[in-house]
Amino acid sequence: MADGADSFLRQRDRAGQLAAWGRLDVALSEFRRFEAEGRTQEAIAGYEGLAKAWAHGSQLLRAIVACKALTRLEPAHTRTQALIAGLYARHAEGPGELTSAEVEALLDRENPALSVPLFSLLDRDAFVALLDAVEVRTCATGQTVVREGEQGASMVFMVEGRADIVRTLEDGSRQAGPSVVEGGAFGELTLLAEGPRPAGLVAAVPSVLLELTRERLLQVSGRHPLLMRVVEAFCRRRAVDNLLRTHPMFSLLPYEQQRVVAREFRLQRVEAGTTLLTAGATGDAVYLLLRGRCTPYHVHPDGHETPYPVLREGDVLGEISLLLDKPVTAMVRADVPCLLLRLDRSACERHIFSQPGMRDALMRIGAERLRRTARVLAERSLPEGDSSV
Q1: Which of 20, 22, 35, 328 lies at a 20 to 30 A Cα distance from 59?
Q2: What's the CA gap between 69 and 64, in Å, rounded?
Q3: How many Cβ atoms sit within 10 Å of the Cβ of residue 177?
Q4: Is residue 209 situated within a structural domain?
Q5: What is the CATH number for 356?
Q6: Where are the extended beta strands (E) located within the chain?
Q7: Which pLDDT tens digit goes with each residue over 298-328?
Q8: Does some domain include residue 238?
Q9: Which residue range is the domain that position 36 belongs to?
Q10: In this structure, are 188 and 255 located in the same domain?
Q11: Residue 111 lies in a domain
């Protein structure tokens, strides 16, 4: 009995040493060897030691991976999940469930360098439920993590390693985009709306990931509704931050003003066939297409339609009408169910157009967009006077 206790303590000490090295794959491989040799209790002690060491060392994702290995061998184990939740979950701040606005306010205060918002905004019970719902994936160099074009319904967190985002261009060539590195996430929008993956993910080095599927999310959020509100806030914030960083209508703003504008965006779901912009009407919002596909089209006097190039995920629509204060000149219709970010005209007026020099700069951007659209229209032989959406 004493020998067993000594061995248990030795493996917990060894786990602490391995965790200090920071290499997840090396640490896990040692205790997998114990599993293969039938030394199950020593493996359990090792995994528990890793989970605790990484949890106390501000490495939440690594701690979760070690905890998943532990509960695989000891399904009734609960103390390590409780420990991790006690360190990272949000402590209750008053009675009742958080509203979406309260979740947004908490997200504003999160430091992404020190936390994983999808976990750390949850209360303890929801945190443990999410920990149980995620699954560990390991990928070799060159292995496809997510395949472009497949029906996506899961997101991944990069725990250790690196994976490259890849897209197929119109000419059929492959383009490698930015990499997902440790602590990064990919595919979160598929948790809110299923559809073909607009990009793939390929492991650049041996990698360990955590995966959350839409199916598991719906199961857990049925018991913990807060989780879905946190997921929506997390997805909205990530999409807004990317838009503010890359689109000239927003990237010209000072950082402090960008953060103010970020709070004004809202997620909007529409069904296939929904008209988002109506020709001749005053534009009432800017939209970012997150999931789905839309077609702008010109309606001729005789009623027949001529389509423009299809709008795909990542495209912005409606901004020209606001920038130039002109009626919308093309209809835009959702081809499939879509998920969008919407920023109302009133928010644009308050936070963007009111900034010194912004309207003139944006007018120049709008004029250039109109010139490019005019060239497209000329190629399609549409009547003179049409413009972009």
Answers
A1: 35
A2: 9
A3: 12
A4: yes
A5: 2.60.120.10
A6: 135-139, 144-146, 151-152, 154-160, 162-168, 174-181, 185-186, 195-196, 200-203, 207-213, 266-270, 275-277, 285-291, 294-299, 305-307, 316-317, 331-334, 338-344
A7: 887 887 888 888 888 888 888 888 877 788 8
A8: no
A9: 2-88
A10: no
A11: no
C-alpha distances in Å from residue 214, one per residue of 147, 151, 155, 187: 17, 12, 8, 11
147-151, long-range: CB within 8 Å, 24+ apart, which pairs? Answer: 147/197, 147/200, 148/197, 148/198, 148/199, 148/200, 149/196, 149/197, 149/200, 150/196, 150/197, 151/194, 151/195, 151/196, 151/197
Residues 135 and 214 in one domain: yes
The answer on 75 and 19 residing in a single domain is: yes
Same domain? For 47 and 136 the reply is no
| pLDDT, tens digit (0-9, with 9 covering 90-100), for 117-144 | 788 889 999 999 999 999 999 999 999 9
**Boundary residue ending a domain (88, 112, 139):** 88
Residue 365 carries which side chain, given as an amino acid letter?
Answer: I
Q: Is the confidence at residue 104, as pLDDT, over 60?
A: yes
Whether 30 is in a domain gets the answer: yes
State yes or no: pLDDT of 357 exceeds 50.
Answer: yes
Q: How many CB atoms lie within 10 A of CB 52?
A: 22
Contact in structure between 199 and 166 (CB atoms under 8 Å): yes
